[in-house]
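Help wanted!
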Amino acid sequence: MTSATAHRPTRRHRTGIRRGQATAGWLFSAPAFLLLLVFLVIPILMALWVSVSDWGGRGSPFSSGVQFVGGKNYAAITSGGGLAEQDFGTALRNNLWYVLLVVPIQTALALLLAVLVNNRVLKGRGFFRTAFYFPSVTSSVAITVLWYFLFNPAGAVNKLLSLIGVTGPNWPADATGVLHNLLALVGVRNGPAVLTDHTFVGISWWEWLAGPSVGMLILISMAVFTTSGTFMLLFIAALQNLSEEVQEAAMVDGASAWQRFRMVTLPQLRTTLFTVLTLGLIGTWQVFDQVFTGSQGDPGKTTITPAYLSYVAGFQNQAWGQAAAIAFILFAIIVVLTLLQRFVLRDRDVSKRRMRRAGFTDAGDGSFRTALVASAADTDISGGRR
Amino acid sequence: MQRRIPRLAAGLVAAAGVLALTACGSGFSGSSGSSSSGAAGGLTSSKSALTVLIGSSGDAETAAVKSAVADWSGTSGTKASVQAATNLTQQLSQGFAAKKPADVFYLGADTFASYAKQGNLLAYGDQLKNKSDFYPSLVKNFTYDGKFTCAPKDFSTLQLEINTDLWKAAGLTDQDVPTTWDQLATVAKKLTKGKVTGLVTSNEYQRLGAFMVQAGGNLTNDDNTKATVDSAANKQALTYVQSGLKDGWWKFTKDVGAGWGGEAFGKGVAAMTIEGNWISGAMQSDFPKIKYQVAPLPAGPAGKGTLQFTNCWGIAADSPNQAAALKLVEKLTSSDDQLAFAKAFGVMPSIRSAAGDWKQQYPQFAAFLDAADYAKGVPTAVGANDVVTDMNSKLASLKSADIASILSTEQKNLSAVVTG
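Answered by r_m:
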């Protein structure tokens, strides 16, 4: 180590074949670096400046007339009790429920589909893979239009529901929250005062607990439909990388199919799971095109999202500072949630208690056997005694 | 020789980078000082060609505007090109931010104030030769900070459309065309049968507001200087609408699965609807078999009333050739051009001198133009758009809503943005 440091040539003394390597390295990465700088770093810094300035959309944000206003734009959307705050709170609420439903469902569905089409017994796997992946490559605008046709009050979904005797709701116009509706079924129509009297970002806690609106369910089902295929592909790739030996070893140990999936396959998919959850989280927090082309915030503002609100604030209301502020708060939310998720999914040793709960028995020598093997062994022993 | 290549390349890349940065630099260095040129009648003038950016309803409109602008180019000698925007507000904003806006463009009454506030617009109204010919209520719509900013392009008003076949089938005659709220309720009840609802409108203020005007209210006073949302008149109007929804002779478009009143009307699930003169084009192209007539909306407790919607021809404060742009706008708002536009895509002229000819050509739609005398505008203050959107979201559930609480919430919201 010492000798290596001692011999490490400094820039000036570099000679021979390695001469100019650093320059060449910089040179080769320069185009990508420049592109990132011009189209990513500089715009982000500009937006950051806009979010703390009073720029009104005329000329450059760096021209002399634009003033620094500190946190005024951030304050307008997070406090003050005005319409801007209410809208932002509503958008956060809507998007939170959207994320809470879409991310787990699409991940689970993607994994299920991947396991199904990865099954070698299945005939026509290629067909199913393509079929499941197809929605991902279709334009989201086209799917949005189609989806609103299906969920029209006289559309296919309600027709199907009527076949089983259910009168479907007026999907695109129903602004009532799903959780509120469920609570109403058990007779709770108005929230307790402790929830209705206290607000967070402009809307009451009772409103936060409304759940996604019936109209929002259209967008949720659509997101699940379109993105499951994409993530299925990631899972398939990961599944094909798993070694057969581990599976076979588990079979020899007598693990059931579910145990093999839960205790052998799933832990090996952790990195892919992290990727899928992260991509899902980022994608769902940024949902924009379906809202822009489909609902425009209807019914009753229950489908406005921060990304859509940011667009409206900027391009329609010329409130560029607020628009940028919304974008940066959204950015912060995504970063924090991704870090949190990384923490939850970090690599760690499984405790003995958890192993036991999952059906493994402690063999006493530091290794574990599945419960099945253990009981089979017991039978054998008792049989031998007989 | 070989060893020199990286250095040479590095030099080239560095030079290219510097060039790229200076190219960006031209965008950053723009100062806001040049805006003063628009003040005090001193219009900018140059030989540069004009760009006209329009939010077109279709090929007919684009072609009509193109031909009118080409005519002007021919006589004035100034080159001008027309661009149909795919998303007008977005493209306008991009132009303003880049300091290279279109010279002349369409501008909605609901968004004009926010552009005017940022100093993007040339306030040229008082320099128009035909200034006194515009309807005063339209001029009021496009007055910002006491200055008549841009020339009204055309306008539309709401009236009552009646499906004549359903009308006759219900045993109604011309004598029964409603002139009061009570009569409207009576005929609508008679027309409600099976799949047909007497009256179907969208749930927006942009339709229901007509009833507020008939009751003597509106969201703001006529000068757009004071929020008047929680007035007794507005409450009376919404209570009337609510009673209709409860009785079932009035339904919102969303509840019958239609996107707007014209769609419900064309599909025959609505015997009557409330829309503007734009409905004529839609009926012609989408539902040519439906026979209908246009009647004035019934009078309310405070007499006749309806809402009007309008656009103007904006001229950019940063346009290098404002003098020519002003001349172009004068031509585009002339009687001849406006009547040509009316013929091409069914709008109503914004000037009084063209009214007679228009009514002669379209007697069946006279009710729309007659409303110019009593129609009221929608709030134009910066931020009022958001308040109306919020109100619309609440009006969607008007049937079971607490009217007083909607009005008081929006009074609070609108007061925050409307400051005299």
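OP: Thanks! One thing I noticed: Chain B touches chain A through 48 residues (CB under 8 Å).
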